[in-house]
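stage 2 :: seqdesign
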């Protein structure tokens, strides 16, 4: 008897649909422990795609403090036609982009449903505009 695995499709794992976008994101690295050292940890990145569960953030430099697993990123997202949304995310994966910058794959953590709803609504509006 031969058993064959069902074809695995990556998109089936996503809880929220992802949409390609292009807008700036202010982010701050929040280390688990900041010893008496004052370090400027706020940066500007470019959101490449977003969903209700996370985003792909393009950054020009990959700072060492971003790669520590205990760190969170505080994001200030300015979605079109909405007030800025502040969220927290953790780094899932970092990789080099084709343009010599870096991609940070981020997963939102402890998101209030109201904020997540705003993101999903904005994504749905974006899809509608693209289809027309």
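stage 2 :: out
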């Amino acid at each position: 008897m031969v058993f064959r695995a069902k074809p695995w499709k990556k998109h089936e794992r996503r809880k929220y649909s992802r949409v390609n976008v292009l807008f700036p994101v202010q982010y701050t690295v929040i280390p688990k422990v900041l010893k008496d050292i004052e370090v400027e940890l706020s940066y500007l990145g470019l959101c490449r795609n977003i969903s209700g569960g996370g985003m792909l953030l393009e950054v020009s430099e990959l700072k060492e403090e971003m790669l520590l697993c205990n760190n969170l990123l505080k994001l200030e997202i300015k979605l079109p036609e909405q007030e800025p949304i502040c969220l927290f995310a953790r780094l899932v994966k970092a990789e080099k982009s084709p343009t010599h910058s870096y991609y940070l794959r981020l997963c939102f953590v402890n998101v209030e449903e109201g904020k997540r709803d705003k993101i999903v609504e904005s994504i749905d509006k974006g899809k509608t505009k693209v289809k027309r």
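stage 3 :: structure notes
- The first helix runs from residue 113 to 131.
- The domain at 31-131 is CATH 2.40.10.220 (Thrombin, subunit H).
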